[in-house]
């Protein structure tokens, strides 16, 4: 089966509905949101995840935000949210949610690549209190360049919330399924039409990249540290509340953290 090209960033126009269902929907989506909300609640003092009211609304950038399911929490709490994405179809899904929730005055949708965002913002609106970049790094040709592109948008003392697809998890799942040739050939990139990304990443490598930036890492968590390894679909969905509770309980413990399908890192700029 033909592979997705690894030398160009991925546009989800052709897979927006499938992405919405398989990544954001169902118990997978609930686990993702539970981990993100827990991490923000522990490290972030203002609504929607903290108790302290902000004197002025914060500015939030959801870079490569897709449907923007997580960032709309901030808009509902009164903050200003800018969502950019290279996929017009993903932005249409976000726009539907924005309109349904009456958030038009707080949300700006920009159809562009992250690398081109500066062309769509005035100089006095290019710094944000929080930058979200969720499930984007693994879909771009140069993930290290993407981190450098994001840095100017983060205010001093601002936050970067980063999630990325974990190569350890992909390897382990293929080992369990006895897909040994895939491992031996290091054939990790997804086929065309697949939701397996072009550049799954080792967490240790991403942590090293972040350590070279003017950032302090506040927390790191695995997302779906065991759920994806339950191959019996009936068993996987049998007790959703316990799944979420145990995913949260093991998301920061080793070795489980490093087996998460995604890794979430929340950092603060110096």
Report what the structure shows.
This protein has 270 residues and is α/β, with parallel strands linked by helices. The chain is 34% helix and 19% strand. The chain is built from 10 helices and 7 strands. The chain has helices spanning 16-24, 26-43, 72-76, 88-100, 143-150, 167-176, 180-184, 203-211, 233-236, 240-250, and strands spanning 59-63, 80-85, 107-111, 128-134, 154-165, 215-223, 262-269. The chain has a 7-stranded mixed β-sheet, sandwiched between helices. Strand 4, helix 5 and strand 5 (154-165) form a beta-alpha-beta unit. Helix 2 (26-43) packs across helix 10. The model is unreliable at 1-8 (pLDDT under 50).
Summarize this, please?
The chain has 270 residues and is an alpha/beta fold. The protein is built from 10 helices and 7 strands. Helix 2 crosses helix 10.
Molecular shape: globular
Q: Report the count of strand segments.
A: 7
Taking all Cα atoms into account, the compactness measure Rg is: 18 Å
The end-to-end span amounts to 46 Å
Q: Sketch the major β-sheet.
A: 7 strands, mixed
SSE order in H/E notation? HHEHEHEEHEHHHEHHE
Low-confidence stretches: 1-8
Relative helix content: 25-40%
Average pLDDT for all residues: 89
Q: What is the strand arrangement across the widest sheet? A: 3-2-1-4-5-7-6
């Amino acid at each position: 089966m033909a592979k997705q090209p690894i030398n160009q960033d991925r546009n989800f126009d052709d897979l927006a509905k499938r992405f919405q269902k398989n990544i954001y929907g169902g118990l997978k989506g609930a686990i993702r949101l539970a981990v993100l909300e827990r991490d923000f609640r522990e490290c972030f003092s203002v609504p929607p995840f903290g108790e302290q009211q902000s004197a002025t609304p914060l500015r939030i950038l959801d870079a490569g935000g897709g449907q923007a399911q997580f960032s709309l929490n901030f808009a509902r709490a009164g903050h200003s949210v800018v969502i950019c994405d290279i996929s017009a179809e993903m932005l249409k899904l976000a726009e539907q949610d924005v309109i349904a929730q009456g958030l038009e005055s707080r949300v700006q949708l920009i159809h562009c690549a992250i690398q081109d965002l500066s062309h769509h913002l005035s100089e006095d609106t290019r710094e944000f209190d929080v930058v979200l970049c969720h499930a984007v790094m693994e879909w771009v040709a140069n993930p290290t360049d993407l981190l450098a592109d994001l840095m100017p948008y983060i205010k001093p003392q601002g936050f970067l919330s980063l999630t990325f697809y974990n190569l350890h998890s992909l390897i382990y799942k293929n080992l369990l399924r006895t897909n040994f040739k895939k491992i031996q050939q290091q054939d990790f990139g997804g086929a065309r039409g697949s939701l397996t990304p072009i550049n799954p990443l080792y967490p240790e490598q991403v942590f090293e990249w972040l350590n070279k930036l003017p950032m302090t890492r506040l927390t790191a968590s695995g997302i779906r540290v065991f759920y994806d390894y339950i191959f019996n679909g009936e068993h996987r969905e049998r007790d959703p509340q316990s799944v979420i509770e145990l995913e949260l309980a093991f998301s920061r413990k080793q070795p489980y953290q490093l087996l998460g399908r995604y890794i979430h890192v929340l950092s603060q700029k110096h």
